[in-house]
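Example 310.
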Amino acid sequence: MGSVVISLDAELGWGFHDIEAPPRERVEAGSRGWLTMLDLLEEFEVPATWAVVGHLMLEDCDGRHDDHPTGPSWFERERTEWAHREDLRFGPDLVEGILDSPVDHEFASHSFSHVLFGRPETTREVAEAELERCCEVAARWGLLFESFVYPRNDVGHRDVLAEYGVKAYRGKSPTRDGVRGVFDSLVRDRSFLVEPTMDERGLVNVPASMFLFGFEGRARTIAESVWADPMVVTARRGIDEAAENDGVFHMWLHPNNLTHQRDADRMRAILEHVDRRRIDSDLTVETMSDVARRIRPMSNDFSAVTPGRN
Ligand SMILES: [Zn+2]
Ligand SMILES: [Zn+2]
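Predicted structure in complex with zinc ion:
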């Protein structure tokens, strides 16, 4: 019997601040998508791992962050185009929404300012600064985190994560995203189940199985005109596989992927299926930190408190 894991990269503007021309629709959809996902997860009582960009938990900032080793140029958009877009730079109310949910979500980290950890220019010092600030701001909120989602899934500096007490991260998917992944599953009958592994530092890799919004635009519209939403069909297959076999089916998305009603409909259909299979089989829903605890049962270095508000 397997399990389903859902992780969300909760970032508002931070997922795009280093991009020359951020995709407008997605930037503007961030907070609405966040609230929609909170509602849907609550409706189906499905706990998820919410990987939050640390900067969102600040009340305000000077837009420079002079003490950050990346230097103020990394934060330039805060001082220019988004100087008056506090709603893209901060989101304490949205973070409260995760913590106050009746569903036992996992509060996790998506770095402090969406630095790409695998890039050569990201020195160890930068990685440490990102983790340090996440831990600081979390502590001010009375929170700890045990799971980390790398910005753009760019894995790097795993030793720094371990140093700051992280126990789990989301590794790259062994299968392909988008149309190709759908093809692999539906035509080539490839499995989407992943097997979490622990590295030499005790850090558990909970690889992604499937990005839920890799099949968009025209291709999606055409597919939907002749067929049901192909991502829903594929996700249901993954959920069924996890209900019948050992292994983890790990889906992920950004709240800002919910740009239209059909995106919320997709998530509803997927969560409905998770709920249905949880009732008629031994399928469980886990967070990334639940998986890490299960994989490393012998180590007792987890804090006694569940991640979340102390
Ligand atoms: Zn700032
Ligand atoms: Zn991100």
